[in-house]
Amino acid sequence: METNWLERATLLVGDEGTEKLKNANVLIVGLGGVGSFAAEFIARSGIGKLTIVDGDDIDITNINRQLPALNSTIGNQKVDVVGERLLDINPNLKLTKINEFMPPEKMHNLVKNGNFSYVMDCIDSVSPKVSLLIACRKNKVRCVSSMGAGGKFQPSKVEVKDISKVHGCKLGAKIKKELKKQKIDRGIRAVFSSEAPLPSSLQLTDGSNFKKSFYGTTSYMPAIFGLYAAAEVINYLRVK
Question: How many CA atoms within 13 Å lie on the side-chain side of 172?
Fold first, then answer.
């Protein structure tokens, strides 16, 4: 008899946990270094329904840290490459792909009408990130948000806490400041590192794609952030 691909997972979480994950509906926004690995772990957990959002194409500079980035995939859309991989993991996955950078109103409507069990914010720029988090809070949808993985080396410094407890993260400080304007100061789970970023790795940009600057990034740190975020989601959904 053919072995169920989730056999090892079911031994750990039980039949009930497996069924709860199968019935869950997750939204992941951002498929870069954090989001691509988060999507992989979510799919391999047996989540039944998944929506992935990213308007970017794969660039050669993504190869050092992003799961779908290969020399053979440069120029392809991230949602297509990641989506194909996820369906190869689980052909029964109910997958929705949205290939765009979503404006605030559209982000709000997606969260409001999506009936999501959990939202994963893996966006790496402030404005759209804040829009997604506001939409989650206003619509009372659970979410986990990834702070900055750039400029850092130490896996042991990564942790998950309420966003009010985030410290040592410049991106986190900016996000908290913007959320406070909307009277949001807690109630969002956040993955962050308290390690100070390496100043010499900071690169300024022309401000396109919502980014004014970015830090250099090693191969494993974004993946660790994605792992922590996925673990937060999976461990909540398997028992809720």
Answer: 29
| Claim: this prediction has a pTM higher than 0.90 | yes
Domains of the chain: residue spans and CATH:
7-237 (3.40.50.720)
Q: What is the mean pLDDT of residues 11-33?
A: 98
> What whole-number distance in Å separates Cα of residue 83 and Cα of residue 85?
5
Amino acid making up residue 142 = R
SS3 per-residue string spanning the chain: CCCCCCHHHHHHHHHHHHHHHHCCEEEEECCCHHHHHHHHHHHHCCCCEEEEECCCECCHHHCCCCCCCCHHHCCCEHHHHHHHHHHHHCCCCEEEEECCCCCHHHHHHHHHHCCCCEEEECCCCHHHHHHHHHHHHHCCCCEEEECCCCCCCCHHHEEEEEHHHCCCCHHHHHHHHHHHHCCCCCCCEEEEECCCCCHHHEEECCCHHHCCEEECCCCCHHHHHHHHHHHHHHHHHCCC
Q: How confident is the model at residue 149 (pLDDT cuts 50, 70, 90)?
A: very high
168-190 tens-digit pLDDT: 999 999 999 999 999 999 999 99
Residue-wise pLDDT for 50-95, tens only, equals: 999 999 999 999 999 999 999 999 999 999 999 999 999 999 999 9
